[in-house]
Design brief:
Two copies of one chain form a homodimer.
Chain A lengths: L14 E3 L4 E6 L12 E6 L10 E5 L3 E3 L1 E2 L7 E13 L21 E9 L2 E8 L4 E3 L5 H14 L15 E2 H16 L5 H12 L9 E2 L1 H5 L10 H15 L1 H6 L8 H8 L6 E6 L7 E8 L5 E5 L5 H6 L2 H7 L1 E4 L10 E2 L3 E2 H5 L25 E8 L17 H11 L16
Parallel strand pairs in A: 1-10
Antiparallel strand pairs in A: 2-7, 3-5, 3-8, 4-7, 6-7, 8-9, 11-12, 13-14, 14-15, 17-18
Chain B binds a DNA duplex through loops.
DNA sequence: ACAGTTTCCCGTAAATGC
DNA sequence: TGCATTTACGGGAAACTG
């Protein structure tokens, strides 16, 4: 008769975190003619202790509340519990309940709502339960918990099978893909097209030892590591969702991120394109990483591909991805302009003072293996002050005023042919 | 008879945060011959309610504990309360106690310890109190709270004057400076020299309308904003302590950061030095910012100074400061190598796809005013792949193998006039 | 309206448990 | 011992409250 739902982490309902409050709204689906008294509803967690767990929780906050009229619409009764927060009761009695699955994120719990309605002298006991919920204690568990919710609701219409993960069923691959696309559209505002879904499908079904029947096991989705990797498919995908949401949301929504392309497909796509054509792809080896791959031609006309070392959250926090695309450069050491900093006051050679603090980060000089571990082009951030000097039309000193004289002086000193200090080389011919 | 002390935030004792646990250790300074029974000590906060506040706190956790033998040394009795956590009791009765200071960080509280000792048939009540403590609810209040602790202990020997901040006394400037230096040495491992202290003294005493008597008011230290700034002296200094601790600790400890120098002094120091001589200075206008200033000469021999836009925590998290010093470059727009990314697959001009997402960050082209708001040289991070190409000794193609052919191709395409001689293997002629 | 203050809660690190 | 899980708490931001 009622319709429970419970957001906690926005867009990740049915996952509850201990000590973090959540909200549940309940609507009475039958209409009552008499409303002379309060209908009080009580919320309980795991009321019937038949849970697959020896963890016990209670709900703190006002878990008994009266229903009131819905302001909007049809005047039906509802009640919203706010600020409920689950707390774990340390069960000193180590009576291991049902053994079941070992991960807490595969442990299903249930929230019950009870009430009594006295109607025409009749006393009616009402009770309803939420869909299974997963209880976690730290956001780090959220990805796996959410996977459980997805898998459950994808696989069964059962509203209360708390032992579901004792023996989780397989899911139809095409249904799963639909859910994944829906995940993207609800979480980051744009779903996945068929090319992207095909790539994910391939990734999910490699090493599918048997059953090529379009079914996928829970283990393949969320338990077993991807071949050669130290993480599961789902963790990999969640890291990408997170990356998109936090760092490249508008680009994603605009559809400029192809994202899910295999390295092989990538080459097929790029090989006939103009040199300088590139695409954006999520890293398959780094969690939450994005790279760009571009094509060019070597002097003998051979087509070549280059992928930048993937950018992750940390780097993108320092420099937005669009800016990286705008400003990315490949330069030769000889053409790097001189560093204007030479002596720490009063006269300590810079490297003498700071040399031991330089990070091993491969700036300036490329790594021993020119391409990184995965064939990526190494890339670093360099602090630069860039000056525009428009040489197409000669200018008088006064015309240069928009550029401050002192900066101009820096340029003169370090970049002009008549350099005083040890110049590395003459500047490469511009253009 | 006892000796209380209480670390919570390491190195910021006497500041307690609600709901965050702390530890207190108590030692009995008299020796007892008989120890046949347990001496239980009770910890209370603001036991005598004569506090300058209507905030009420209680201590949660085991606040009654028995003393035991000290394992080390002389077998004296002690007790350590761990996991105590202060909680605020919302006093619904709005009976504003003592009016006093308005800031909670100027509200002094006190922790009391009580016990009873039965010795030779005599019952002795013992009680001792902590030095005044400040209760905060968020780390954002810690700097001001710690300032209160410093000022109190600098100004008085009174062990319990909880109304101290109703009318805080002035402090002797030289004593304060000593404390500041001690702050640096205890918090970031290196104190301040006299030059640095002189700069701070000047900063503290500008606009010192009257009393040039070497006394400084609490307000000047921690209440009034610095002239023309939106923060107090202390907040400015704390931001620097924080910056040092988190991003440039080893450089600070080595003494390579002059840090506290006025812009005027800076020029005096640098003007006779070799071009390329620089020093590191904390920004006076940006909270927690550090800049470097270098000297060079314009072509007509005029001495010029340049200061980089200060780096703050966010930027230093992306690029360590030592690396910034190592890699900083000033380049001209004309000499910037081409960006290899031109068309988003299949053939969308890059700027068409991403142009609207570029940040307004002034990369590539300098700002309208060539030097920023405060006369700083603007500076940005640029993602770069750098390739060493050693032209001093020609190499055969096979020597080029350590560099991947594709990277080589990039170089060919975008950078080289005609010929590239590349080698990874040759060590760069060290220094 | 607003500023001081507290609460909320993510996310990393450390502690704990098994 | 190692991994699974919880706890701790800094820090940014929202909510609260006079």
């Amino acid at each position: 008769e009622r319709q429970p739902c419970m957001p906690t982490h926005p867009q990740r309902p049915l996952v509850l975190k201990t000590l973090i409050q959540f909200t549940v709204k309940l609507r009475l689906l039958i209409k009552l003619p008499e409303l002379n008294y309060q209908i009080k509803v009580k919320a309980t967690i795991d009321k019937n202790v038949s849970t697959v767990s020896n963890r016990r929780f209670i709900l703190c906050g006002t878990h008994v509340k009266a229903m009131n009229m819905e302001e909007s619409s049809n005047g039906s009764l509802s009640v919203e519990f706010r600020h409920l927060q689950p707390k774990e009761m340390k069960s000193s009695a180590g009576g291991k309940g049902n053994e079941g699955p070992h991960m807490v994120t595969e442990e299903l719990h249930s929230i019950s709502f009870e009430t009594q309605i006295c109607l025409y002298g009749l006393t009616i006991d009402l009770e309803t339960n939420s869909l299974p919920v997963v209880m976690i204690s730290n956001v780090s568990q959220l990805p796996n918990a959410w996977a459980s919710i997805i898998w459950y609701n994808l696989s069964t219409n059962d509203s209360q099978n708390l032992v579901f993960f004792n023996n989780p069923p397989t899911a139809a691959l095409n249904q799963l893909l639909e859910v994944l696309s829906w995940q993207f559209s609800s979480y980051v505002g744009r779903g996945l097209n068929s090319d992207q879904l095909n790539m994910l499908a391939e990734k999910l079904t490699v090493q599918q030892t048997s059953c090529n029947d379009g079914q996928l096991s829970w283990a393949k989705f969320c338990k077993e590591h991807l071949p050669g990797k130290a993480f599961t498919f789902w963790v990999w995908l969640e890291a990408i969702l997170d990356l998109i949401k936090k760092h490249i949301l508008p680009l994603w929504i605009d559809g400029y991120i192809m994202g899910f392309v295999s390295k092989e497909k990538e080459r097929v796509l790029l090989k006939d394109k103009m040199p300088g054509t590139f695409l954006l792809r999520f890293s398959e080896s780094n969690l939450g990483g994005i790279t760009f791959t571009w094509v060019d031609q070597s002097e003998n006309g051979e087509v070549r591909f280059h992928s930048i070392e993937p950018y992750n959250k940390g780097r993108l926090a320092a420099l937005p991805f669009a800016d990286i695309l705008r400003d990315y450069k490949v330069i030769m050491a000889e053409n790097v302009p001189e560093n204007p900093l030479k002596y720490l006051y009063p006269d300590i050679p810079k490297d003498k003072a700071f040399g031991k603090h330089y990070s091993s980060q491969p700036n300036e000089v490329s790594r021993p293996t020119e391409r990184g571990d995965k064939g990526y082009v190494p890339s670093v951030f360099i602090p630069i002050s860039t000056i525009r000097s428009d040489s197409t039309e000669p200018r008088s000193p006064s015309d240069l005023l928009p550029m401050s004289p002192s900066v101009y002086a820096v340029l003169r000193e370090h970049l002009s042919p008549t350099v005083i200090e040890t110049a590395m080389s003459s500047p490469c011919s511009a253009d």
